[in-house]
Specification:
Layout (H helix, E strand, L loop, with lengths): L16 H11 L4 H7 L4 H9 L7 H12 L6 H10 L27 E5 L1 H5 L6 H9 L3 E9 L20 E3 L4 E6 L7 E2 H10 L4 H11 L11 E7 L3
Antiparallel strand pairs: 1-6, 2-4, 2-5, 2-6, 3-4
Helix pairs in contact: 1-4, 2-3, 4-5, 7-8, 8-9
Length: about 240
């Protein structure tokens, strides 16, 4: 006799409200990656609305965003992000206290020193975990530098080129997979204005990967079709 099939409980496969709202946003033309930017989280969390029943804390924000789109005609991602931020609250425990959450991937110390790193998966989703680091560095008037890793063929100038690094060969690391890490900016060279990079990130809808890529292309350092494989951002307080 064949084994009996288990019957599913009614509503077992029903989507939670966060997933339902995410579906409506996708029907309005937004991708899961866009939704992640709007709520300032990694796209993997949006996927977990469907697979792990998460997202309850973002329901009020997603409702307000939908209202802004459907009733207010607002479509700009930065505006929708600002709306969501005003309506995102921390979840609570059964006793009513605020639930503990994992700390941010980045932290700026009182001296202004901060470091954030992302690799392939986070880069593909815009390196959004680095956005708070850059935004806080801009707020504090800090300087920043970054290290990128690309296939060697993605760079325009040879390693150690004065036009590129500039001329700092110790800021170049060769990898066995024919990729290369190059560092741009340092405390010795003055680095870059964090406010400028924060504006660039905002202009890209919070996509840090795209903002860094655009800067590298604009300054003639990489080819437009080059792909960033690794990204690190460092901050410090100017003297």
């Amino acid at each position: 006799m064949p084994p009996r099939r288990r019957s599913q409980a009614p509503g077992q496969n029903a989507l939670n409200e966060a997933a339902q709202l995410a579906d409506r946003l996708q029907q309005a033309g937004y991708t899961k990656r866009d939704i992640a930017r709007i709520i300032n989280r990694d796209p993997s969390l949006v996927s977990q609305f469907y697979t792990k029943n998460k997202g309850a804390a973002f329901v009020p924000a997603l409702r307000e965003v939908l209202t802004a789109i459907e009733a207010g005609g607002i479509t700009d991602l930065p505006e929708l992000t600002a709306i969501a931020a005003r309506h995102t609250t921390r979840r609570t425990t059964a006793s009513g206290t605020r639930a503990r959450v994992r700390g941010k991937a980045v932290l700026i110390t009182p001296t202004g020193t901060g470091t954030g790193r992302v690799a392939a998966q986070a880069i593909a989703s815009g390196s959004t975990r680095l956005r708070p680091l850059i935004a806080e560095a801009a707020r504090q008037g800090l300087r920043l530098a970054f290290t990128v890793r690309l296939a060697k063929t993605g760079y325009v100038h040879p390693s150690g080129s004065r036009t590129d690094s500039p001329g700092i060969r110790r800021g170049v690391t060769q990898r066995a997979d024919h990729s290369e890490e190059r560092s741009y900016g340092s405390a010795q060279t003055g680095g870059f204005d964090a406010t400028d990079f924060a504006h660039r990130v905002d202009a890209q809808g919070g996509d840090v990967t795209a903002a860094v890529h655009q800067w590298l292309v604009e300054t003639g350092r990489i080819n437009p079709d080059a792909h960033i494989l690794h990204l690190e951002v460092r901050t410090w307080r100017p003297r």
